[in-house]
Amino acid sequence: METSELQRNRFYSVTPAVAITALAEVLITVSLCVLLTKRLLNTLIVYAVNRCLLNLLVTIAELAIELQNAWSTGLSLIIGSLYANSFLASLNCRKRLRRQDSTNNRSQMNAS
Question: pTM (2 decimals)?
Answer without folding.
Answer: 0.51
